[in-house]
Design goal:
Structural class: alpha/beta
Largest sheet: 3 strands, parallel
Number of domains: 1
Distance between the termini: 28 Å
CATH class: Alpha Beta
Order of helices and strands: HEEHEHEHEH
Oligomer: single chain
Length: 176
């Protein structure tokens, strides 16, 4: 989040799983959109939260995915880790909801350059994502951050629930 914003907007802890609620960040963007909102949800995997808290986190994620104005999901995955059972469950939920996804493989600076491409291919295959849905990133080295901004821009320029109609054809507006 901080790398995307270009400044410190989110508190970072040395212990994973500290986020306990939905954090909303207004992110400026050039063009007609002006601002988009980035929702930081609690992690569903590594967190040492109780079962009750984890169930509440899953409910929060499901509720967020049901939002009509959701343009897509920025899915943060550690490039060093194999997909967990929770990652697989998230993958199924995102597919079921037909949610546009951009997966950011984080912490690439912790992996040798030669291994990054191999890990990207392995994870893309394991998670059944297209090439344009996955971006290797490192906040520390600023790797992939501009690509990530561009991918988010693509998501927010496409109307949520875009039915994929031909250019110039639109659906009459309905209630939100």
């Amino acid at each position: 989040m901080n790398a995307l914003a270009g400044r410190r907007i989110a508190k970072v802890s040395g212990t994973p799983g500290k986020t306990r609620m939905l954090n909303v960040f207004a992110m400026p963007v050039a063009g007609p959109v002006g601002t988009y909102y980035l929702l930081d949800l609690p992690g569903y995997g590594y967190s040492r939260a109780s079962r009750t808290d984890r169930a509440a986190f899953r409910g929060l994620v499901t509720h967020t995915l049901d939002r009509a104005q959701l343009a897509g999901v920025l899915w943060l995955l550690d490039i060093r880790r194999e997909p967990s059972d929770d990652d697989r469950a998230m993958q199924e939920l995102l597919a079921e909801c037909e949610t546009p996804v951009v997966a950011a493989l984080t912490k690439s600076d912790a992996v040798a350059r030669a291994a990054r491409t191999r890990r990207e291919h392995e994870l893309r295959g394991a998670l059944e994502l297209e090439e344009d849905q996955m971006i290797v990133t490192s906040a520390r080295e600023n790797e992939g951050i501009e690509d990530l901004r561009e991918a988010i821009g693509e998501l927010i320029r496409k109307p949520p629930g875009d039915p994929g109609l031909a250019p110039g054809v639109s659906v009459p507006p309905g209630p939100f």
